[in-house]
Amino acid sequence: VSPPLAQTIAAKTVKDLLAKFVPEARSGTPKLDENEMKRIAEAFTKGRYLGEAHLDLAQYLRDCWKAYTPTKYKAPCVAVVQSSGFGKSRMVRELAIEAQKSALNMKVLYMCARVHESTGFPKATSELRGWLFQEGSEVEDIASRLKTIYVYANKHWADVQKEWLKLFTEKAADTSVKAKLSDETDTLEGDTSTEKNPNGRIVVLVIDEARSLLTEKPDKKNDFRMLRNALRSVNKDIGHRGCIFGVLIDTNSRISDLAPPLLLDPSSRLFDGELASFAPVVLAETMDAHWDQYCEENPAGEDEEMKEDIQDQERAKIAMYKRIVTGDASQAWHALCRMGRPMWYSTCPNPADREDVINLAANKLLLGIPPSQNAYNKDTMFGVASMLCRLGVRPHSTSALASRATADFMAILAYVNFKREGYVTSYASDPVLALGAMKVWYELKYGLAKYILPQLKNLLLDEALDTGGVGEIGEMVARILLLLAMDTCVMGDKSFSQCYHTIGQFVPVQDFLDVLQGNKERPIYCKGMYNAEDKRPELNKWCSKWDGWYMGFTHFVQLQLEPNEDTLWFLLGRQAAGIFPRNQYGADLLIPMFKKRSNSRPVGGETTRGEQEGHEVLMMLIQVKNRFPVDGGFSRAATEKLCPWFVFGKNSDGNSSAGKSTDEIGRDPKPLSSTDVRDTIRIYMNVRGRKSDGKFIYATTMKDNLKPKKKGNASEEDPVFTICLRLLNRVTYPFLSDGVASMLSNMVESQYDPLGLVEGDLDYRDEDEKRNKNVSSYAKLSLTATRDKLLQNARKALAYAPGDKEEE
């Protein structure tokens, strides 16, 4: 291959790569109105800064400068990456403020390289950017201007930071700083030192919205590559006395090391291998910053000295979760806004701003566009980020979606791997973002069925999401069903815009169970699926014990450790439900519920295990199966495998109680394995099958639910109940719309086997034809391409091998 052809191919590769991961400026991104911009500006400049991320950055830059040598590293440059709302720009401003008043021996020049309107702040410094990256500039030209920046800073070291600090907030500073740098004529004196001064003067050049530097230019290097090479060049001239160090800030993690092929950038080549890049700064320290501050300033316990110990600090925080859960609704909302990324509370600190902060979160999931018909498009990935956020699903670390989810769709970046080819991201518990996701779900009447769920299915088929395998698709669908049931409890038949005042509040457990099961009386079956209607009085008594109990969740979070009582309060405080680890026995999902001290005992019920004085916390355990055509192993899965002693497996006595919680911070949390099975709501879900009603109550006895070789204090013949939902259809789940029910069934079946993909799509086609039966212009494809013919053809093409069906 000739060099010109190789260069052309390489250039196209880079262009395609950038087009894939670094979308071009979006002309449709809305411009913030004056009031919104004022609110963001006040939060940026006047709000109290929490934490020491800026000092950590200063130390990291100093360490990188000490380690830097052009024979090992590509450039004296680091990236700061994280999704929107974590305070990346605010962190470097705090660094600039610290540099002005302390002995860091460091100055910060800020530049915002944004080339289009966005929801961000500070505003673009177009004059300064235009000066540094002038049209037609070569690497040598940019290096010369970087040298000018270093010379100017050294000459005015005592007061230059005060001047440069205005670049964060004053538009006029962009023009004045550019003019002074343009007029600078002094040159850099020669460096005679032979060893690097570890405490030398560092000028930090911060370029915010740095993805704009990646825009490719015809027949020349882009600004990103020229800046990197210019930093290498200028620091050779500066020598050992100090340096000018680049800091690139963006939500796109690809900015951390989007290195071009060596053919296009020989300066990055080393004879014995490729040069290294400094590890990016993944800003995570500010997560929950306002909540941590709230816990410190409003201690839930009386012993202040105990908070010196980290473990006791965590126990104190759990006590605070308990306080807000069992307190009034306004207190819970005030605390909820402080959780997650700091942007929510910083911009909307007033409890009356509930609607504004939820709208902000919804817009952020759609590239800053308010939810509307036009917002659900290819650029916004049809709003699917709202689904990933609420389900607690993350992209595979090596998929293209991993970096884009962080850059554009509010996923939280946790780690960039050593070779910069994998990005560990997640939608960790961010309650306000989950509320914004609710708005994305419901603002458009058919948004879920028409846009969001089809896009989720596409991501599943593309294997872009880390679901844990084929069998986990059913569990994901179960999470959607549970969220829809919970949303129905909160919203009823109202539109989302009518429910801002109730969103994020707790609801009675009985209301949730009524929505999930329907208002009709469910049949009762015992082992062998024989009628057990004689157990109706005991069932009614067991159901009545949940009067006065409350619950509420807006999203699911992945649990890594075995849950205990603290876990339940943590989830309740963040309005979340839990996903068990993949190696967990028995249950797949956990939903906490609580009873306030002020509530009376259950109406018509006796005081039994788990019903003592004080705040109580218990749980629902859910097991999900994806079995078809028969539900093999149902009996054991719906009984023994949903017993707390089986699910949690340790510290169990088989039939003791979870008991009441404690307000004592120092006491260890109680293990959930000791919870009595009668104090647990067990739900068994099978998300396959579409024809009939799959709701019933499965009645067994304590004898069937005790730990082997253990005897309980109660009669072994006492009844124990499990709520069973064994089919996925509108009859079983009447709160589903036709379109959502069809899409969920299609999603499960298509992922299960190739023929299921065909059958699921045909079912979706049939549902679509029913919805449009009165539309004269609708083309009914089943008239010409019949279901039977298409299925027969698919079976032939798939060449199904013979075998026995699974027996129960």
UniProtKB/TrEMBL annotation:
Stretches for region Disordered: 654-674
Extent of Basic and acidic residues compositional bias: 661-674
Lineage: superkingdom: Eukaryota
Family annotation (PANTHER family): CHROMOSOME 15, WHOLE GENOME SHOTGUN SEQUENCE, F-BOX DOMAIN-CONTAINING PROTEIN
Protein name listed in UniProt: Uncharacterized protein
